[in-house]
Amino acid sequence: KSFLNHTAFLSCSFPNSQKIDLKDLRVFWQKGDVEVVHEVYHGHEKHDNLSPKYINRTKMDVDKWTLQLLNAGIVDEGLYTCIVQHRDKGSPKLIHTSKCLLQIIANYSQPEIEWLHAGELKPNEYLNLSCSSSGGYPEPKQMSWLISYENRTQSFIRHMDVSQDAVTKLYKVTSKLDIPVPTNTPTNISCLLHLGEQLGSLVSVPLGI
């Protein structure tokens, strides 16, 4: 995983137990089946075969057998293959391949609750709220609402509207909540954005009523 516009590290996992000199190797990374991302040919970087969008964006750490992909974007997501060939008395011989799946993460803004109606709140009416968060990637799992009274808390899951920017590919999500106006008890309403198991959740500033 890599954060958007940061450097991604793609491991080749090549142990090189025989300590073969880089001058006797051809090492290259490719994305999918056709795009060559980086190539080291007998100790020298070679640019002839590179896909144009990776030129001047890659750097190989020879000690760690890791490729650095600079300014990683959402279009760079996907499966990368590292291929190592040994030139030993004649034609190159394949001695190692490994795969690395790159996923990009962009941080969502803190969820924000908005009133959808004007005027004073009156008993027996409905409270209309919306909660939004934007600028994130990948698409989140769901949005939920927490309503805390003095001695209990209720959780609600409502439909989440999702839109994706055509250019940046970043997501905006919105959820709406309609509930009867709470009476006779102080109430706090919060909105939670669930990003997935490894990324956790984001919570809004509570709205007090």
In brief:
The chain has 209 residues and is mainly β. It has strands at 2-3, 8-11, 25-31, 35-41, 44-45, 58-61, 66-69, 78-87, 92-102, 104-105, 112-115, 126-136, 142-148, 153-157, 160-164, 171-180, 188-196, 200-203, 207-208.
CATH architecture of the largest domain: Sandwich
Count of DSSP H/I helices: 0
CATH class of the largest domain: Mainly Beta
CATH superfamily of the largest domain: Immunoglobulins
Can you write the helix and strand succession as a string? EEEEEEEEEEEEEEEEEEE
Computed CA radius of gyration, to the nearest angstrom: 26 Å
CATH topology label of the largest domain: Immunoglobulin-like
- Provide the helix percentage: under 10%
Number of spatially distinct domains: 2
Order of strands side by side in the largest beta sheet?
Answer: 5-4-3-8-9
Q: Overall pLDDT, averaged?
A: 89
Structural class, judged by helices and strands? mainly beta
> How is the main sheet built?
5 strands, antiparallel
**DSSP strand count:** 19
Please give the alpha-carbon distance between the first and last residues. Answer: 40 Å
Give the overall shape, derived from the CA principal axes: elongated
Question: Could you walk me through the main structural features you see in this protein, from its secondary elements to its overall organization?
Answer:
- It is built from no helices and 19 strands.
- The protein is mainly beta and 209 residues long.
- The chain starts with a strand and ends with a strand.
- A five-stranded antiparallel sheet has the order 5-4-3-8-9, with no helix packed on it. Strands 13, 14, 17, 18 and 19 form a five-stranded antiparallel sheet that branches. The chain has a four-stranded antiparallel sheet with strand order 11-12-16-15, with no helix packed on it.
- The protein folds into two domains: 2-105, Immunoglobulins (Immunoglobulin-like, Sandwich); 112-208, Immunoglobulins (Immunoglobulin-like, Sandwich), CATH 2.60.40.10.
